[in-house]
Amino acid sequence: MIAFVRGQVATVGLTSAVVEVGGVGLELLCTPGTLATLRPGQSTTLPTSMVVREDSLTLFGFLDDDERSTFELVQTASGVGPKLAQAMVAVLSPEDLRTAVAHEDVKTLTRVPGIGQKGAQRIILELRDRIGAPTGVPSGSPATAAAQADWRGQVQQGLVGLGWSVKEADRAVETVAVTVDDTSGDAPDVGALLRAALRTLSKA
């Protein structure tokens, strides 16, 4: 198993990034929130999880070990594969997910594309004794100011990468834009804005 990747970011796309390690470019599938923290030419260290199939080896990259552990744990629930697990950590932070499972919050879980009411109930039933109790730590991982400078483009690209149309993504961006204080001087939290935009689309 490849536990983490450390190297220089070669490229950043809508759904993945390529990190050069020892002269080899490794493609990592990442959530939009993770991709928003990466810039070509910069060094990075990303925890990873490898999914092995008969015809493929897929490497997923994450912001931190907690996100990776959550990604791997939710796949132990019936009907949750790597793609749905990645969508879960894209929409909900690990702490948000622990809180939703602990409180049997079906509504929060169904915000994730691909999870219906029955699926959410099954996930709660199968994970509530294993996912752990909420820690009370605020959700959302802060990215650097440089990574968040163009938050509108990053959120829009992230939504498109998750399967929404450009029109839908633009509408969601405008909806969450009203919550951003452009005069504060602080860089917006792209991960939090992305999750907020996904929630508006899920309600539509």
TrEMBL record:
Listed Gene3D superfamilies: 5' to 3' exonuclease, C-terminal subdomain, DNA helicase RuvA subunit, C-terminal domain, Nucleic acid-binding proteins
Domain of life: Bacteria
Protein name, per record: Holliday junction branch migration complex subunit RuvA
Domain Helix-hairpin-helix DNA-binding motif class: 72-91, 107-126
UniProt family annotation: Belongs to the RuvA family.
Protein purpose: The RuvA-RuvB-RuvC complex processes Holliday junction (HJ) DNA during genetic recombination and DNA repair, while the RuvA-RuvB complex plays an important role in the rescue of blocked DNA replication forks via replication fork reversal (RFR). RuvA specifically binds to HJ cruciform DNA, conferring on it an open structure. The RuvB hexamer acts as an ATP-dependent pump, pulling dsDNA into and through the RuvAB complex. HJ branch migration allows RuvC to scan DNA until it finds its consensus sequence, where it cleaves and resolves the cruciform DNA.
Subunit structure: Homotetramer. Forms an RuvA(8)-RuvB(12)-Holliday junction (HJ) complex. HJ DNA is sandwiched between 2 RuvA tetramers; dsDNA enters through RuvA and exits via RuvB. An RuvB hexamer assembles on each DNA strand where it exits the tetramer. Each RuvB hexamer is contacted by two RuvA subunits (via domain III) on 2 adjacent RuvB subunits; this complex drives branch migration. In the full resolvosome a probable DNA-RuvA(4)-RuvB(12)-RuvC(2) complex forms which resolves the HJ.
Gene Ontology molecular function, alphabetical: DNA helicase activity; hydrolase activity
Subcellular location: Cytoplasm
Originating species: Nocardioides aestuarii
Region (Domain III): 145-204
